[in-house]
Amino acid sequence: MFSQIRSLTACFALGLLLCSGAAVASPVVTATSASGLPGSTVTTTMRIVPDSPASVDMGSLIGWNLVLNWGAAPLSFDPASSTLRFGADAPIGLTSFLASLPPDLTVNHDALGGFYRFDWADLNSGLDPQTLLNRLAQGVLLSASFNILANAAPGSYEIGFEQGAGSSSLTDAVLSEFQYASVTSGDPMRVVVERSPTVPEPGGLSLMVCALAVVLVSARRRWGGVPQ
């Protein structure tokens, strides 16, 4: 929606950069991994913190697109159990936060397609300073809750931040944009499915019990516990 204006802004910004020779930094995106057994629920995180000088002003955003893409991984995302934390503030539920935003918001949760995304843009005069979104200037931590499917095969499954409709992004009041398809530092967001402990088959368990009984009887005879 900002593409034409953004192109003009980008050209203008590039001209300023070439003239000034100043370095421009981008926000830093990091993530963590979580591990669990099939059928369990795990929480993995993604953090965005501003850098200085920044390529986008996280204190005056007019657009925020966030994507979680796990594709064919044996996972299901639970937005109701996921949270956002702005700076040192207390965590707030993801769904509660989205409900607090102005109406220019779309949410698409495609469980079969393996992605979740929300796209928000302030099409009017910019953010009200009282809105929670302004707190992004302090950095934000997403704690994403995933259920590991009961039939999940052991392995490591990465979660990306882009999908067919585009990457995750932040757009500020002068239409500077920061896009990120994955982390910009460190390891990617991932869920590791652990192998379930092996349980002996009923027949194998019976053999183990019989073998243990033989060993015990032999030991008792050796020490005179059983008459010959």
| Strands, total number | 15
Derived structural class = alpha+beta
Gross morphology: elongated
Count of runs of 4 or more consecutive helical residues: 3
In whole angstroms, how far apart are the ends? Answer: 93 Å
Helix content: 10-25%
Describe what this molecule looks like in 3D.
The chain has three helices and 15 strands. By secondary structure, it is of the alpha+beta class. Strands 1, 3, 5, 6, 7 and 10 form a six-stranded antiparallel beta sheet that branches. Strands 4, 8, 9, 12, 13 and 14 form a six-stranded antiparallel beta sheet that branches. The chain has a three-stranded mixed beta sheet with strand order 2-15-11, with no helix packed on it. Strand 12 (162-163) and strand 13 form a beta hairpin. The chain is elongated.
